[in-house]
Amino acid sequence: MLSDSFGLPKGAPHPENAAAWLEVCGSKAGQDAFNPLKGSIPARTDGDRSLYDAYLQSAMDDFSSNKIAPSLAHGAAASEGWVTTISDVMTLFVADLDVAAAQAGLEQAAESAGMEAPPEEALSGDLEIFSWWTAGGEADGLNAMYGVFSEKYPDVEIVNATVAGGAGSNAKAVLATRMQSGDPPDSFQVHAGHELIDSWVKADKMEPVTSIFENNDWLGSYPPGVIDILSYDGEIWSVPVNIHRSNVLWYNKQVFADNGLSAPATFDEFFAAADTLQAAGVTPLALGDNGIWTFIHLFETVLLGTMGAAKYRGLWDGSTDWAGTEVKQALENLAKMMDYVNADHAALSWDQAAQLVADGDAATTIMGDWTEGYFLSIGLTPDVEFGWMPSPSTDGMFIMLSDSFGLPKGAPHPENAAAWLTVCGSKAGQDAFNPLKGSIPARTDGDRSLYDAYLQSAMDDFSSNEIAPSLAHGAAASEGWVTTISDVMTLFVADLDVATAQEGLVQACADAGMC
User: Fold this and answer.
1) What span, in angstroms and rounded, lies between the C-alpha atoms of 139 and 142?
2) Given this model, what pLDDT does residue 117 score?
């Protein structure tokens, strides 16, 4: 690949005009005006495919799925001086076709450019990885990534320190005790964004991992928005292994077929289908909220579907009023949905709720796409036994969260931890992990052929939908704010009192300093 670009030189006579030009160059409108005529594809991921011809659409598809290599001839792969030296070597080669002489010249050119590869240091000792991945596809995926690491570093003994509990509800408490007592693991799983930064970076408990990104030339392999979520105070603080989608409705295809139903796209369609299913003796919506995070997860999808992505994002920066009519409507929608859930929801976990759908005892569940990893682990096939849709009224929107690993200060084996983080961020590591976990790679160059129909659809949606951060999974709000919202919603799931819940949410925003 190669890319044409524009820059802003020091001393530009009209810098404000130049900045405006650069904004046009980087805009969707600018790139969609330029590229169809130029015979190229947009550098942005949200280009309007309908403007591009058959070849350019095929190039878009290939760019999103192929292994990417930089162009030597066009300035992407090597420095200008190195390219000049290679050009001199090849000028002789085109005349005499002397392979040995040309190869010797190319080796000398690489040495002159300072590109001799240093030998990889052998590592040994322990590596303690702390996570909450103990079940189904998540455990399978973690073990696959351990396999990639062990192949590279066979003398390092992995200590798999897992603590069960969905979304890390139990693991976070154990981790907090260890971190505060000066006993950190070598690396730990954490949701990228506020969860890591507010809890541990601002407390000066983490080492930056910016150098790992720079040394591996990763900054061009991750979407800028993901890098932004990982960053604070000019540094990157964790390595993401995946992107998950929160707002997915999973459904039993046979149950829907038996009742003459199509998957619901809107709240009205959901409630109409729920009435039909309930009359047929089928639980319309499976919920397992023995941990309150699953109810918060359902709540965030209802908020998004009720108010749209822009107003949903505004909840977290103070620009959307928690006392407004949209929040009230969302709470009313959520209360109505609770009329259709299984009576034992408070006794079940998320995966037990998913099992109800697998068994046909319930028709749907709303949960993140780790649910697909669970379905695969029990032998189900995508689009055969189970189907999927964006949760009601969220088509074209994507609530994202990302699992990541960081490097705590005082890690007992920091070199082993750095090697682990390098595997986590690598293409090989992510392509081993994500197809089993039921998530998509955080990198942009994942091998699409390894991913099933659902995950390929998630890749496509992530590149084209409006993105919104997850509340339940640490991307949207600080840990303290999430805790306060959880307290409010613990009462709401018991009494379904919309007015009291909305008052509590308004106060939670004020307590967080955002309203």
Assistant:
1) 5
2) 47
Spatial distance between the Cα atoms of 55 and 74, rounded to a whole number of angstroms: 21
Helix, strand and coil in the chain, % to nearest 5:
50, 15, 35
Cβ–Cβ under 8 Å, residues 382 and 452: yes
At the topology level, CATH places domain 245-400+471-511 in D-Maltodextrin-Binding Protein; domain 2 (3.40.190)
Spell out the domain ranges in the chain.
80-112, 125-243+402-437, 245-400+471-511
Closest of 139, 94, 86 to residue 113, by C-alpha: 86
Phi, psi of 478 (to 5 degrees): -65, 155
- DSSP E strand boundaries for 346-429: 362-366, 386-390, 397-401, 403-408
Average pLDDT over residues 239-244: 97
* C-alpha to C-alpha distance for 343 and 348, rounded to whole angstroms: 10
For residue 368, what pLDDT is reported? 95
Largest CA distance in the chain: 86
Please enumerate in sequence order all residues whose Cβ is within 8 A of that of 297, keeping only pairs 6 or more positions apart, or say none: 167, 246, 366, 367, 368, 470, 472, 473
Work out the angle between the directed axes of helices 80-96 and 99-112 (0-180°, nearest 10): 170
Strand pairing report for 231-232 and 235-236? antiparallel
Helical axes 479-495 vs 293-314, angle rounded to 10°: 120
Place of tokens 């969905």: 166
10 Å CB burial of residue 290 (0-12, 13-18, 19+) is middle
Place 505 in a pLDDT band, splitting at 50, 70 and 90.
very high
Measure the CA–CA gap between 398 and 404, rounded to whole angstroms.
Answer: 19
Residue corresponding to tokens 């609770």:
338
Inter-CA distances, 411 with 28, 229, 397, 414, 505, Å? 44, 23, 39, 5, 38
The verdict on domain 125-243+402-437 having CATH code 1.20.1530.20 is no
- How far, in Å, CA of 423 to CA of 292, rounded? 33
Q: Does position 122 have pLDDT exceeding 90, yes or no?
A: no
Per-residue pLDDT of 380-409, as tens digits, reads 999 999 999 999 999 999 999 999 999 999
304/397 Cα distance (integer angstroms):
8
C-beta separation of 227 from 168 below 8 A: no
Quick one: which of 388, 390, 371, 383 has its CA closest to 265?
390
Q: What is the spatial distance between Cα 406 and Cα 208, in angstroms, rounded to a whole number?
A: 8
Least confident of 44-53, 240-249, 311-320, 328-337: 44-53
The yes-or-no answer to whether 125-243+402-437 and 245-400+471-511 have a common fold is yes
> Which residue, among 174, 150, 151, has the nearest Cα to 162 in the 3D structure?
174
Least confident of 68-72, 113-117, 359-363: 113-117
CA triple 194-200-205, angle to 5 deg: 155
Two structure tokens written together for 44:
């942005």
